[in-house]
Structures are given as C-alpha cells and as structure tokens.
## 1
Amino acid sequence: MILKAHLIDISTGRRSAILNEKDAEKIGVAPHDRVKVRCKSKVSTAIVDTSSKLVAPGQVGLCKELQEDLQVKEGDEVEVIPTPLPQSTIYIRKKMFGGKLTPEEIDAIVKDVVEYNLSDLEISAFLLSELFHGMDMSEIESLTKSMVKYGEIIDFGRPVYDKHSIGGVPGNKVSLLIVPIVAAAGLLIPKTSSKAITSPSGTADTMSVLANVELTAEELKEVALKVGGCIAWGGTLNLAPADDIFIRVEHPLRIDPEPQLIASIMAKKLATSVKHLVIDIPTGKGAKVETMEHARELAAKFIELGNRLGINVKCGITYGGQPVGHAVGPALEAREALEALMGGGPMSLVEKSTALAGLLLEMGGVVAKGFGKEKAMEILRSGKALQKMREIIEAQGGDPNVKPEDIPVGDRKHVVTAPCDGYITQVDNKTIVDIARAAGAPADKGAGVLLHAKVGYKVKKGDVLMEIYAERSTKLQDAVSILSQRNPIVVEGMLLQTLPEY
Amino acid sequence: MILKAHLIDISTGRRSAILNEKDAEKIGVAPHDRVKVRCKSKVSTAIVDTSSKLVAPGQVGLCKELQEDLQVKEGDEVEVIPTPLPQSTIYIRKKMFGGKLTPEEIDAIVKDVVEYNLSDLEISAFLLSELFHGMDMSEIESLTKSMVKYGEIIDFGRPVYDKHSIGGVPGNKVSLLIVPIVAAAGLLIPKTSSKAITSPSGTADTMSVLANVELTAEELKEVALKVGGCIAWGGTLNLAPADDIFIRVEHPLRIDPEPQLIASIMAKKLATSVKHLVIDIPTGKGAKVETMEHARELAAKFIELGNRLGINVKCGITYGGQPVGHAVGPALEAREALEALMGGGPMSLVEKSTALAGLLLEMGGVVAKGFGKEKAMEILRSGKALQKMREIIEAQGGDPNVKPEDIPVGDRKHVVTAPCDGYITQVDNKTIVDIARAAGAPADKGAGVLLHAKVGYKVKKGDVLMEIYAERSTKLQDAVSILSQRNPIVVEGMLLQTLPEY
C-alpha cells in the first residue's frame, strides 16, 4: 500500500509506523504486527500502531527512528508492506519452551534486536526465558560474540586491562581509585562503564561530577593512550548496542537474567579489546549475589567464558552485604573517592580498591603474585594515584585541581539518629538504594546518602546514623517517607516493630 | 507538575501520557514509568512516553484512553505526578520467581490490569511466569473470580447451559449446530464466543457471516430469553475485561498459558451465570492438546474449578488431529454448518456436534444418561435445529431464510491436487491454519480452505485435495507460497522431500 509520510515526533525506542485504523484493516495488520516501510531506495522494518485521527487514511505516521532510517520528508510517498514474523521469533519461542539455541539462532535474535525488528514484548519474552531456563556456556558465548559483532570495536594497539563490578551494592566507587592506581603502574586501563539503571549512581554518574564522560571512540582512545587510563560512559560508544536495548527492556521489569548479565559484561570488554580483566562480585545480603556458593559458580562462568573469548579473567569475591564506603549518590561518592585518593577516605573503600587493583598489577606482571595489593597501596599512599587521577580528569575536560569540598551536594538535608544505644547490626542495601533514589540520585547529582555508621559500629542514642541529601525538598520528603516504613540501619537494641501497629 | 493538555489521537490500548523530554527529566520519569494524571476531580494512572517536538515543554500529550478517563479538553490544566510502582508489580515479581500468589495478590494484579495500571511488559511478565511456573488450583480459582469481579455479570433468571471448546483445531464450527439443537430441546444456551486470535475463524467470526454478533448485554438477554439461544461475540459485553487485555498481550507472543486458558474460559462462563457446561477438548497432533494424558489432566482441572465455582462441568475429549469437517474460514464454515443443519454436511461435524449437544441434553434432564447423542441427532434430523437456528439468526438481525449457496466466498481460488495415488495419512492443522490465514481469514470472510480429502481417504493422482479461497490475489499468492515449503495434506506414497534440495 502506498501512503504519504506524516512525520511524528515521538521517539519510542523502536521503529513505529502509525497507520490509520482503516488502512491497517485493509492490509490486514494490527498493533504489534510488523511491516516493511520503503521510501525510494531505503527500506526499514517497523512495528504497527494504529490511530483514527492523528494519521489520516492514506497517511502513515513515522516516528523519529524511522524518519532517520528512511531519510523521509513530510508527504513523501512511502510503501507499507505487511511482513511475516521474523525467523528470530521462532528461536525466541524455542528458548521460551526451554530449548537450547544454536549460535546461528542466537545471532539471528541479536541481529533483529539491533535492527529493531523485534518488539519490546518479544525481547522481554527472550529475557524472561533466559531467567527461567538459563543458558549454557555455548549459548552465552554465542550471545556475547553476536552482541560484539553488531557494534563498534575499539582497538588500542596495546594490551588492555580492565576491572568490572557486577554491581548490586551501593556506594561502589572503587573504579575511581582502581583506574588511576593501575594506570600509574603503567598498564593501559580505558574503563568504560554504565550510568545507573537501578542503583543511585553508576561509575559513569560519579565520574561525570568530575569530568566529561561522554567521549567518542576517538576521544576515548586518545585520552587512554595519552594518560594510560580513562573513566568514560560506554553509552555513546555503540559498543554491543544490543545490550543497551536488552537493558532498556530489563529495566521496567527489574530483571537481570544471569546469562544476559555475563554476556553483557563480557561483550563490552571484547568490544574494547580487553585482554586482562578483574571482575568484582560483591556478595552478601541485599546484593545481586547473596551467597558464596553462588558467587563461586558465577566466577567459574566468567572464567570459562573468558577462556573461550581469549580474555584472561580473575574474579574477586568481595563483601557486598552493606554499601562500600560511606557515600551513596554521584557527588557524595565523587567526594569520597577523591578523599581516598588524597590519603583519607573510609578503610573499606581503600581496602577493596587496592585488593582489586592489586590483582590487575599481578596480571600485568608489575609485581609477583601475592604482592599486588601491597603495591597498589603503595601507589595510592605515594600520591601517584591522585596525580594520575588529576591527569585523567584533565584529559577528560574536568578541573584537575578539584578538591572534595568544591563538589556541590544537595542543600536539603535530613539527619537520622540512633534511637537507642547499641551496635549496628545491619545496613540494608536495598533500603539505602531506595532512599538515595527517592532523594533524586542519580539524576540530581547532589542527592544521596552519607552513612555515619556501618555494621559493627557502636553508637549512642542520638548519634547521627546517616544524612540524606537532596536538591529539592519534595524529593527529600519522598526519601524521608521511606524511613517511616523501613529501617535502613538497625541498632541491635532497637524495636523493629510494635504490634499492634499504631 | 502542572501542564497543558494536548490531545493526541493515538489509541495504544493503555493510558499513555506523552511528556516533553525536558519535563520528563525534570520530574524524574522515563518511558515505561508511571504517573498520576489529574484534571479537576478526575485522576488516572498513565504510562510515560517522551517526545521532543510533538509535545512542547509545558504540555502533556494525552492518548485517547486518557482523554476519555479524564474528560479533558485541549489546553486544560492537568497535573502530572510521578508515582511509585504499584504493589501488584511486586506480586508479579513473586510469580516470576516461582512463588505462589494469595487471592489478595492475584486480585491486585487483575485490578491493575483492568485499570490500566500495568504496562504490557509487566502483563507479559505475569503471563510468561504462568507459562513457566504454572499455577495451582487455588490461584486459578482466584484468577477466575477476580476476572469476573472487575466486569459485567449477566443474570438470565433461568439455569444457563453452555458449551465451550478450548480451541486449537481449525474448522470447529460445532457451536453453530450445538446451540440450536440444545435450544430446540428447551434449554437456555446464550453462547458468547470469541473472534479468532490465532485461528482462521472463531465461532463469532463464522456466526457474523449469518447475523449480527455484536450484541449489548441487554440485546443478548432479550434474544436468548426469546428464542432460547444465541451466538454472540463476547467482546462487546465487558465480561471479564481483564481477559481481553491478557489476550491482547498473549497474541503477539503467541502464548496461551494453561492457568490463563482455564481461568479465561471459566470467568466468561461465571460472568454469564452458566450452571451447566460442556467443555470440548480437541486432542491430537497439531491441536492445543496433543495427548490423551494431557487432555485428561486438563479435564480434571476444569471439573475441579467448576466444583469450586458452582458450575457443573463435563468435558468431552474429541479428536483434534485434523480439521473438523471440511471447511476452514468464516464464510466456508458458515456454509458448512448450514448444510449440516439442513441434513447434509460432513459426518465428522455432525457426529461431534451431536455428541457434545447430547451431553448437555443429559445434564439438563431432557433425556437419561446415555441417550443424549441419539436425542441430539433426532433434533438435528427432524429439522428442529435448523428451524431454531433460523429463529436465532432472525433474532440477531440476520436473514432467517439464508441458503448455503447465498453465502459469498472469495472469487480467487487455487486447487491443490494429489501428486500420486494413495491414502491420505495426514492433514496438518497448523499448515491449514497458516494457509487459511495467509489467504485472508478471518478478516476477509470469504477466504479459507475447503478440504476435499481427510485422513483415510483414498485418492488418485490428480484428484482435488483442497481448494484455497481468497478475496484478493495477493493474499491468494501468499497462501499458495506456503505450499512450496509445507505439505498440508500427505498422501502416503508421495515424496516428502528430495535431497539434495533442488
């Protein structure tokens, strides 16, 4: 059917063609169905929506994504042709019923994800099937390779070292220490990382307080080769772009299927030509991984997949039962990282960062096995890591002389105090995350939580347990309202609940 | 945030509020997030989409569904407030990880489905979780009751009899015989049925060839009480409306989780006050249920659920390994049903219809146990069923004197002949369905397939095996192209494939 293009300025994250209801009926398509849309020599596949008035009969509404694909102008002639389901939907169905997918089948799915041939519903069915049925190592390997195949690859011409955390523990700003330590030791560590999806601050969010993290592939390469390291957002680099689409669908469902988690991390590493990789697996109550058994299983998978992909992987299982350090939220975390680089900062942050950095130093032959942590600590204490961090900040367009106190944090504050004397027995990750996010993090960079007490601390009634920071009072209220239902910090002697409730 | 309403004529099947990207960032929401939208005294929950131009900063685009909810005019002041995830998403998550849901939890999910508080992604996660983890009988009972609770209930003031097929076998027009047979025996059988979702013709599609099937609840009651039976589309009656939303999400994923299937059927029956119900479970290769064991399990579930709901259920397991009768597609099936009522028609159709109708006659005490089929056959052969069907057609606004040959079928035709002499060993349901749908059924009422041979028939080379009917030549081509890859009808002696392919 030949229709006139009507440009519609909605960005749906997929290719949407909006047909008038009557035209849709005429060519026998319904919402969620697929059509080919052709304009001159350009063809694209789109998902159908219908409208009775926005798009008149004879017109086809084209969303932003399609306009770009087809380079179409208002009123251009566009041909719309119903198309059968892509073959990849059959493979998704196979996985849905517990089948094992071949490399070719996985490749077809990933290709159709990247080319927007699959609807969000179909992608979610694939992800949920992974969650329910799992994937074996061959499937995960194929998934990883296909995600890399349909994206950019950055080659630095030198062995690349990297560190990655599987996430799930708040306040985990260790990359801001590890990258400069490792780079100061002469190893190349061009770290790309994510913005927060469900946490109050991803590494890229925290780094964005100090410097520009939105680098092009060329800039990333230039910065990394010049100063030995960088901390950039992966989102602008088109590395394994299928992953971004998978994440966009995982996010509203708050799922993170393990095969996808593994493939996602390893695909980004393969795409940045990483050869030596340390993976941090925070483990403990409220973290993504709750038991040591699970952590060990997951580590074994990363190591095996690394072998298959030619990446030397070491995993560090770390304590993830409470936040790392004291600060949660972009600005508060950036402050804390800087303080640690300057010789201060909380012990838990320094210990964890040097332990993981030490593994990389050993893998890079900087020191013999068993001496990495010591060497990392030495680089940190000597001020070389701070110096390197300032070089990285400068190379990424930030102020190299930034001091912790220069970093603005939210000016609305709520202080939580101990209701009684006692020892802290629990700092609940999930509640801290929810409070920090309710306070506005990561979008409001100055929002977050500053812990004054962690597990094992002895406190007296009235001592400050934590401060909540926000940039807007409505957000502060939202965050404070969570406190009425959930205790983020438990003092051993306190009443957890009274019954009947009053 | 207070914004100006901008009415957008898209119907998305959910409540979409389109915010300008900047406003969305300001209030901290992203696509798929939920907001409350308030206009004067009306409040509704909507799912966020974003736009950079269609909706200007300071505006909020409201889709059709929201416009109706809020009774809003262009430019009206509307307040948009971010809202937390509804509690039901936590229950969906519980099911996602294999938990058992309480009646209250299921009720919360169904309520939020009906009130459009859940996104398609969340609903699909619930349905896929049912598919993967199943549901026990208490959960199915709760699901059924909640689906009824949030919809209309029609009370006829008399005991209601009904027949339902779980579907999955093409050509199953038995309701067009059963309803008039049962009604002619004096039992009340106000049948509501679905339009085709994945089949070439639902009972409502077939009936729509003969009469109006889009009745209001009042009309349905009037027709049924006047002539004793009707065959209407359930879609206009708002019976268990949650079910329609579940189906809308199941459709693009082509899934039909068993707990949902059972609850869906029983909810519609409960909502039409059915007391005595015969369920047809077509069983065989290519049907929804492939083995007798599975059919018996499913029957036991329907019977147990019936007990819990106060519905007297009998299940008939029927042969579903090939199409019922010869005709597949709305007009062809309507013709065939009418022929059968007039004393002709294929034996398989007549046998199956009278067997199931007989069960209802026994349940209604019209005859003693064991004599139902005989009685049903007598009513059919006597012409009373035909007479009753003509009354039903007339009461539903159709032509009571319609003859089979009056019913128009598609004028494009392709004939498939036997490639060799032999016995028919297989008529493949799925291929027949795909061919009939490709030919245009059910939207093109005249499209479909007419089988001239079924399993066991002896044919000679060149004999007609089937005819494909279409209203448009492009559709006919689509249907014929399926034949090049798949054999809908297998003659024992024929080559199924040659290797290497040529």
Note: DSSP finds 18 helices and 19 strands in chain A.
## 2
Amino acid sequence: MALLGTLGTPGDIASDVAEILLAADRRGIASHGTARLPNYVALVEAGVMEPAARPTLERERAALARFDARNGWGHHACRVAVDWAVDRAASAGSAVAVVRNSNHYGIAGWYALRAAAAGMIGLSFTNSSPLVAPTRALRPLIGTNPIALAAPAGRWGAFCLDMATSTIPRGRIEVAARRGETLPVGWAIGPDGRPATTPDDALAGALLPLGGLEETAGYKGYGLGLGVDILTGVLAGATFGPNIIGLFSTEAPSDLGQAFMVIDPAALDEAGAFESRLEGYLDQLTSAQTVPDAPGRVLVPGEPEAAAEARSDERGIAIDARHHGSLVELGERRGVPFPDVEQTA
Amino acid sequence: MALLGTLGTPGDIASDVAEILLAADRRGIASHGTARLPNYVALVEAGVMEPAARPTLERERAALARFDARNGWGHHACRVAVDWAVDRAASAGSAVAVVRNSNHYGIAGWYALRAAAAGMIGLSFTNSSPLVAPTRALRPLIGTNPIALAAPAGRWGAFCLDMATSTIPRGRIEVAARRGETLPVGWAIGPDGRPATTPDDALAGALLPLGGLEETAGYKGYGLGLGVDILTGVLAGATFGPNIIGLFSTEAPSDLGQAFMVIDPAALDEAGAFESRLEGYLDQLTSAQTVPDAPGRVLVPGEPEAAAEARSDERGIAIDARHHGSLVELGERRGVPFPDVEQTA
C-alpha cells in the first residue's frame, strides 16, 4: 500500500488493490496476485494507467449500471461496481453492473465471493488480451475471458467456480516449459495450427478453448469465451477480442471491460433456505463413489483455493524466490522496502 | 396443437409448446423437438404432468421473480417467465426469472433468442436428469444442464450459444452406436470409471463434463453444470442433481428448475450501438485465417442452427422415418391424424 502511495494512488483505492492482489496469493493463484505488481507499476510509470482515477457511474437504471473506470485500477473500479450490484440486488432482487475503460482486475472469483459474503449469488466476468484461438482459427483472437460464480454454501463456506474459458491458463504452459513436460492434445496449437506437443510450440501458437479441438467440443469453450466478451467488452463499450492489446503492454491503455451479476436468494425464500439446499447438494456430491484411480474424493469448485487460503492465514503466504526478488527490487526502486519475510525455500 | 387439445391443454399453451418444439426441428436439433411428443404425452397419460396448468407468479421484486409452473408444460411456463424478464429489463435494465415445479422446456436457446428478438441479451438455463459424472465420480450425478446466451448481432442475425455442459449430449453416443463408431477420450466413462471407448460402454456409464478428464480440465465443465443447477434447481427451490428422476420417467413429476437473465443494452447506449459493435466483432472472427485442415471458416455460435432454420423454412422440416412413424402412431392413438408429408427418404 505504501508502494502504491508512491504512485499517487489514494489510500482507499490502494487498500482495495492490496486486498484483491493478496487474496490471489492467499488462494494459491500467484499468477494473479502481488507477482503482477511490477507489471502494474510499469503501466503507471509508462503513463498508460491512471493511478489515482476514481470510477464514475455513467448510466443507471434500477438494476443496471455502467461505470467508467477512467483508466484507473481495475480492482478498485470493480469493487465499487460489484458493491453497487449487491446493494441494488438487495432491493430489486437482482442487478448487473458493467465497467468500461478499465484495467486488469486480478482474480475473477474475488468479486463473486464479495457477493457470496453478502449472502447472494455473484457472477464475475472480464475480457482480456487475445491468447485463445477460436475453433478453426490459426491465431489467438480472444482472451482467456474468465467466468466466476460464487454462492453461500453453509458449512461448505462458499461455492466458488473461477475458471478461464481456455482449457488451461498460459501460466500452466510456462510451468510445463520449466518442467520439460510434453503437452496433452487439447491444451494448445502451435504456430502451424496443429496440436502443440511441446511448451515452446504452444507459446509460439495459441491456447485452445475449453473442450480443446473441434471433435471434443472446443467450440463450446470458444462460445463461452466469446459470450464473456459480449457481456463485458461489447456490452460495456470497451475494447474486445483481437483489438485488445497484449497483456500488460505499455503501448496504450488496455480499455478492458468487466461485468457483475448479483442475485439475492433471500428475495425468494426465507433466510438460509438457499444455503441449506446448496450445502445438502454439496454433501451429496462430495460423498459420492469415485472412479478407481481418483486422487481423492469429489471436490467442490473453489475447495482447493479455500484450503490454500486457510493454510495461508495460518502459516503465511508462500511465494517463490523469483516473485520475492521482483518485489524486493520493486520496493528498492520505489523507495519502499519490502518487509522482511521468513525464508522457507 | 390439435393433438395437445386431446390432452386438455388450452390453445394458447399448446401454441407455445408447438412453436418451441418446431423451433428445435427447424434448427436441426431433432432430439429436442416433436420427436419428444410421445414422451410428453406419456407423462400426461401417466398422470405425472398437468396438461392444462398455468404458471403462477409466486414472488416478485423489481428485477427478480419466481414462478411455479404447477407441473405443467415447461415450454409455456418458461415462455411466460422469459417474457416477464424481458418486460422488466425494459424498465429496470436487467431482470432474472426462475421457475420451479417445471418440466422439460425443449431447446434452451429458444428463450435466449426470445430476448434477442426484443433487442436484448438473453441467458437461459435448465437443470435436467443426471447423466454426467462430476470429475472423479463414478456415477452420473448431475444433468447435461445447458447454458444458452443470445444477443442481437445486426447482419449476423443473432449470436446464439446453446450448449450442454457435458462434452457431448447423450444422443451423440446413440448416433455413434448406430454408426458402429469408437469414441474419443473425453466423451464418457464406462461403468468401471475408465474412459469409454465404445458406445455401449458409455451408455452403461456416464457422460463426462465439458473438458473431459481431469487433465484436460473436465472440472471446469463440472463446475459449469453445477453452477447451472445452483441458478435453477437450488435457487428456484426445485429438485437438483442426483435427486432428479430419469429423463421422461413416468414414476413421478420431474420438478425441474429453469432460470432466465435478460439485460437491455439500450439502457446503456443509443439504440443499435451494441448490435453494431457485435456485428463488427463477428466480422473480424469469421474472416480470420484458419488452421490448415479446417473444414471451413470460423463460425459464429448458433450459425449452423440458423442455417438449418433457413433451409427448413424454404424446403420444409426433414424428419427421419422413425420420428415420422412415432408421430403417425401417436396421432392415430389420440385420434388426430398426422398430416400428409412429402417422403424424401
């Protein structure tokens, strides 16, 4: 937060950014957390992101609003937008908020969980830089455009699906490259358009949409990713698809779009009835008989991330040496020393 | 419609049912069209579906409603529900309607397209009988729970994603059985929990969620299918997951749940601006360079179905001999002769 202060970001905005980046780290999604701080800072230093901008509410109906993030921190603009939707859903029963002229907002799930913490169903969407080849296309034309859906689930805490609409995120290919792995068919295509078998081939080509190739219904993942772009970039009037610049490119503002949908189950039922039904459903699924080679019981979406969060809150957040080094270097450069941490590896 | 009259279904309800079943046939989705009429009639004849029931609006806020379909035709109750959501979205900007105590509603896309025809973005969801094994589970515990998203797209007519959250529908396995095909990994598991290689093995086992096995991110399709059930069965207070009885089983009422979300882009923009942006986006995607072995250009979701619809409207709907025979037999049994049709096969 002190570091964001050196950029001119007011404290309340910095607080949102810090909370959401740390949520990614706590939930074990390091690729979307503080490891990205150097990228965000580079955008501000290059003058293509406004560190102090506050979102404005441009259009408003009882259950629909459009915010202009004014090229500021996506995390803050989207926290404001989802809170608007939660507030409106409490009276109207449901509400939708979209954001344009925005930047990366971190993990999609945080905003959906914000609604779940208010006892509501939350959906969160963003578009992103083109990394995925639509079915039959040679080049990446759409983003990994995630979908998050969270809901309060009693003893299970919250159900939280938070998924890219590609088979795997680009970061998973980078991990495979470091490990020298070959890739399963369905993850990516190479620059020649054939299924990529090596990480290098995939990194030079494009990710495949969820479902993989056409014969395994990759067109569904393509449709989902495009659907997310319709709800975000196209609806909000932001940039979309192949027109979005590269991830954390400093050549121009990103002009991303986000969307949030919130539904209040308490408008339909006595308090707690929805959570209780969902809790019972998750009990049924997690106690089901498994396939012979299953590595464990059936999981609830979001369960691995919630477990990582509980571990982090108990033992602290584990970050790798490269991530640590980049934050120390960033702190030194901005004159805000990175706090001492326990070395575990 | 005369046939539905013999069941005691009033004319306006029968008209909705006929329109939605014929829309499936016209769009080339025979599995969800008039071929199912004998199944629906069997439910009425067995006394487990109410052919004359009218839905009631049970709870209502400005942008959220719950309807009780009173165990009547799902098509009619859901047409009423989506029309309520379109009407409310026109004033509130967005609205959600859920339906409980319902029956099968045909193709999910029809309801989304109903909103698109009103110039709005429509989302349509239903839960269904358990056919899909969640990741790691041995048995089918959730339905193929479809997601449909439609939006007006200028010269492209409408964007219409209409997809089961399983890799493929069960009907595709039945087609493979008739053709004597083997199955790709990712479609289904056999009763032993291993990937099914033959249609018989798959039909005795379970479909896999979109994404297939765990290594190709099948847990995302599982999360999507479960998310649909949360928005429909769990939110509406209908049955869900493993508690839903078999497809067209006459043992008891189905008590399915459906949900519709509608957003009015005209609340955010001048009229036509949204459609124009989406049209331009689809122009970009469909003119993109393709992979070397592509069977054609990049498609817009819903394009094959829209093409089938145009062909049907020009040349009539083609149904196969078994489908034709079942309707003739049904007509004879109910005393309403099936109209003469041109034999083409």
Note: Chain A has a mean pLDDT of 95.
